[in-house]
Amino acid sequence: MLIEVLKSKIHRVSVTEANLNYIGSIAIDEDLMDAANIIENEKVQVLNLNNGERLETYVIKGKRGSGEICLNGAAARKVIIGDILLIMSYCSMDFEEAKSFRPVIIFPDTRTNKLI
């Protein structure tokens, strides 16, 4: 039996940009992507702590070292600059394997979105 479990989590980052005129996605600083074990085009769930919005989209690479967190396309309507987000990805794995699996969770500085 396969179950879906948390694979990666970026805990509490600030929105730096919202771009309605883009085809979609969330741009994430590559340093954060690497630290959280998230890759380009991976599906993520985005939770906005300021307004309770939840959405799913895919990741594109943001400029490395920039602290960029930019919601694009329709998702841009769900945030304002400065909102605090949780960004999570999931994976499917065997039930027994999942019992000992530990997700990668990172805690960037919310003011700069840089790794602490």
Task: Explain the overall architecture.
- It is a single chain.
- With 116 residues, the chain is mainly beta.
- It has one domain (2-92): Barwin-like endoglucanases (Beta Barrel), CATH 2.40.40.
- It is 11% helix and 47% strand.
- The protein has helices spanning 30-36, 95-100, and strands at 2-14, 17-19, 25-29, 43-48, 54-62, 69-72, 84-94, 104-106.
- An 8-stranded mixed β-sheet has the order 2-6-3-5-4-7-1-8.
- The protein is globular and about 45 Å long.
- The termini are far apart.
Tags for this entry?
single chain, 116 residues, mainly beta, Barwin-like endoglucanases, eight-stranded mixed sheet, 2 helices
Short note summarizing the structure:
The chain has one domain: Barwin-like endoglucanases, CATH 2.40.40. It is 11% helix and 47% strand. The protein has 2 helices and 8 strands, in the order E-E-E-H-E-E-E-E-H-E.
Helices, by number, come to 2
Let me know the largest β-sheet.
Answer: 8 strands, mixed
Under the CATH scheme, which architecture would be assigned? Beta Barrel
What is the N-to-C order of secondary-structure elements (H for helix, E for strand)?
EEEHEEEEHE
What name does CATH use for the topology?
A: Barwin-like endoglucanases
- List low-confidence stretches: none
- Coarse shape: globular
Strand order of the largest sheet: 2-6-3-5-4-7-1-8
Termini Cα gap: 38 Å
| Percentage of residues in DSSP E strands | over 45%
Q: What is the average of the pLDDT values? A: 97
Characterize the quaternary organization of these chains: single chain
Number of self-contained structural domains? 1
Radius of gyration: 14 Å
Amount of helix: 10-25%
Number of strands: 8
CATH class: Mainly Beta
Task: Output the structural class.
Answer: mainly beta
